[in-house]
Amino acid sequence: MTAPEPRTGGEELLLARISAAAGRARIGKRRATYAATARTVPARTAPSRGAGGALAYPWHLCRIWYDRCARYVRWPAATAGTVARLDLYERGMTVTVHDRIHVVRYESAAVFQEVTRHRDDPARFTTAYTLTALGGECIVLRSTSERGGGTAAWGPELQRAVAQARLPRALAALRDGERLAFGDFRLSAEEIVCGKAAARWELVERTAIRNGRVEVHVGGAGPLLACDVSGVPNLFLFWTLVERLRPGDGDA
24, 17 in Cβ contact below 8 A? Predict the structure, then answer.
């Protein structure tokens, strides 16, 4: 087995800076490190309070933040972005772009996910994750699948970590009678609403993702409720709540 190459002085300094930033944000121990491509937008582009997501920030402002970020940082799937270093911790993550370190805390993160297939090669697709750092900067992280392969491991890991961190507050809010917003979806302890359509949880049979849309199937009638995946913040949190609230999985 070949021994790993020793770090350079610059790499050691960068690692120390990342660890210091994570320590100041109190996001726990480092769990994994990945590479991705990234683009960022200054804090002034986003609402001044940041986008806390479905629980901590009004949905319409969260959506405005996402739309503004998308206009500034969306780029064609074939175009390379800036190489970024992702360090995932217990309670958050750091994103290092151009030697600048951005910190994200899972408990307050709003993550939007969008999948784009390559026109010249439909078997390959790019997944973009749009989120906000503690300083208010908008960050878009992107991974591109190879032919026959899946998305990069860090994407689902990020979504799972955010869902796990935010789930206790979400369940408590539902028990207190609050209504939670996830894009066009609204969840309460009694029902799920999308636009003008609504269904009580005892009628919800299953959820699915098809053709870039989240579908909620109700009472054998097919997908009564549907919304674009890219419009649902914290998709894994939404999915977890629906699976807990519908029949067969117990209640909140």
Answer: no
pLDDT at residue 76 greater than cutoff 50: no
In this predicted model, what pLDDT tens digit does every residue of 20-65 receive, in sequence order? 999 999 999 999 999 999 988 765 544 433 333 445 444 444 555 5
φ, ψ of residue 78 in degrees (nearest 5): -85, -10
Q: How many CB atoms lie within 10 A of CB 32?
A: 12
Place of tokens 């849309």: 213
Here the tokens at position 240 are: 């977890």
Strand segments, DSSP code E, in 42-171 are 82-89, 92-97, 100-105, 112-118, 121-132, 138-144
Neighbouring CB atoms inside 10 A of 165's CB total 19
Rounded Cα–Cα distance for residues 212 and 77 (Å) = 16
Tens of pLDDT along 233-247? 999 999 999 999 998
Q: Could you give phi then psi for residue 20, rounded to 5 degrees?
A: -65, -40
Distance, in Å, from the CA atom of 4 to the CA atom of 7, rounded to the nearest integer, reads 9
CA distance 170 to 156: 20
Q: Distance between CA atoms of 145 and 127, rounded to whole angstroms?
A: 8
Q: Is 3 exposed, middle or buried (0-12, 13-18, 19+ CB in 10 A)?
A: exposed
Domains of the chain: 13-165 (2.30.29), 174-245 (no CATH)
DSSP string, 3-64: PPPPPPHHHHHHHHHHHHHHHHHT--SEEEEEEEEEEEE-GGGS-TT----TTTS-HHHHHH
Hey, what's the torsion of the CAs at 200, 210, 53, 67, to 10 degrees?
Answer: -130
